[in-house]
Design goal:
The chain is about 45% helix and about 15% strand. It has 15 helices and 11 strands. Strands 1, 2, 3, 6, 7, 8, 9, 10 and 11 form a 9-stranded mixed sheet that branches. A two-stranded antiparallel sheet has the order 4-5. α12 links the parallel β10 and β11. α3 packs antiparallel against α5 and α7 packs across α10.
Length: about 425
């Protein structure tokens, strides 16, 4: 999910937009409108879906049929578990901590489907591969600092470039953990057990979401596939204006073009699967053999808006309005997922940062903040997270739901020894 925790950063972005005529970087031509839908990755066709198109839905269904037929001999449980991880910048420390604590609790399932957006996309491959990669999640979300994510370009860089930050450090971090061995493991899981890993980016040229089948991409196993895998994760986390977009080469009508991809949160902060897919699957009788299907959605942010006295000037007002727009989009995404799961008879489970977590946030990717949030998520996961079964505001007003969730969190933690939770609680209280 796109997050602008600093109003000043947004103000600079507004200034950049006003002065956009100062200069632009060269790029190859985008795919023309008449060829939209025909574009594909040159030597890796079929690794992505246009999420909002009929052709995209039909392609997903076709791949589901193909992988289901290919894995008929593998043992399948009567329970299918789906995991969706939202965006949220450094708030991804919550999801990373929750998953790691869930492992410690002892009942974390193997997920048949894992989806991720933005910071959720960075978590998703490791959540997909299971608890063996919990140390990676902990390292990424407790040991990194801003310089491990981006380099400041400043206003001049933004005016004459494409973003305020340079994400070369983030790409190095992705490269460190996403290697050929990990790619092979993901590809093997996809082909042997029909488990899916999906990541969303936003194609800025078309203004539409793109869902990437990372398992299908991984099973190709070539150096080009590994490079594209890494670029997709970088693109999904590329907050427009703050981080540079990722340019992806495609082919359409035997001609080369280039797409501009940014944060998947520009079009959806979290997703499970396209709503139209469930309807089409029923129509074509493509139904899961699992009798009990459960969806777990981790929202890496709060649901209650933070209070702030807004200065009476245009840019402050605009910055706050955009922040609230992003917050509201997140609510809408949760409602969309909820309605889809209810229609398709999938159990809905939601986790989010509670109002009981209050820790001073000095700056984005602030290590003390991320450590505290990781430990908060970890302890809740270890205690047995009290999942909400409806979206915020569905059965009760949001302020009442926030109060209830905080109460459920406290009750869940009562089962842990005080020595385990006291250090993080003290940190929170001190800040």
């Amino acid at each position: 999910m796109i997050t602008y925790k600093s109003t000043n950063r947004f103000l600079v972005l507004v200034s950049v937009a006003i002065l956009a005529g100062c200069g632009t970087l060269a790029r190859d031509h985008a795919v023309p409108p008449q060829l939209h839908g025909q574009e594909h990755i040159g030597n890796m066709p079929g690794v992505r879906y246009q999420a909002l198109s009929k052709a995209g839905i039909e392609k997903i269904l076709s791949d589901i049929k193909e992988t289901t037929d290919a894995t008929k001999g593998s043992s399948k449980s009567d329970v299918a578990n789906y995991l969706s991880i939202s965006g949220g910048g450094d708030n991804g420390a919550f999801g990373a901590g929750l998953l790691t604590g869930w492992t410690a609790n002892g009942d974390r399932p193997t997920f048949d489907l894992v989806t991720g957006v933005s910071t959720g996309a960075l978590i998703a491959p490791f959540a997909y591969l299971g608890s063996d990669y919990d140390p990676v999640l902990k390292a990424v979300y407790t040991e990194t600092q801003p310089s491990d994510i981006y380099l400041e370009r400043g206003l001049i860089g933004a005016l004459f470039g494409e973003a305020m930050g340079d994400t070369t450090p983030l790409y190095r971090l992705i490269t460190k953990y996403i290697d050929a061995d990990l790619l092979k493991k993901i590809g093997d899981e996809y082909t042997r057990t029909n488990r899916w890993l999906l990541v969303a980016t936003t194609n800025l040229d078309t203004g539409t979401p793109v869902i990437w089948n990372m398992g299908k991409l991984a099973q190709i196993g070539t150096p080009d596939a590994l490079t594209l895998f890494r670029k997709i994760l970088l693109a999904s986390a590329a907050i427009p204006g703050v981080f540079p977009p990722v340019m992806i080469d495609v082919v359409a009508d035997d001609k080369n073009y280039q797409e501009m991809h940014v944060d998947g949160g520009a079009t959806m902060s979290v997703f499970l699967y396209p709503a139209a897919l469930g309807a089409a699957a029923r129509e074509q009788k493509v139904v899961s053999s699992a009798k009990n299907r459960k969806a777990y959605i981790i929202r890496n942010s709060r649901i209650d808006a933070d209070w702030r006295e807004i200065d009476r000037d245009t840019l402050s007002i605009m910055g706050r309005a955009v922040s609230q727009l992003i917050q509201s989009q997140g609510y809408g995404d949760l409602y969309r997922i909820y309605q889809t799961t209810q229609r398709d008879h999938v159990e809905f489970n939601l986790a989010y940062i509670g109002a009981d977590f209050n820790f001073h946030h000095e700056r984005e990717f602030d290590r003390p903040y991320m450590n505290a949030l990781f430990q908060y998520g970890y302890q809740l996961g270890k205690a047995g997270y009290p999942w909400a079964h409806t979206p915020p505001g569905y059965n009760a007003p949001i302020d009442e739901e926030t109060r209830r969730q905080s109460k459920r969190n406290r009750e869940a933690l009562q089962g842990l020894s005080s020595s385990m939770f006291t250090p993080i609680q003290k940190q929170i209280e001190q800040h």
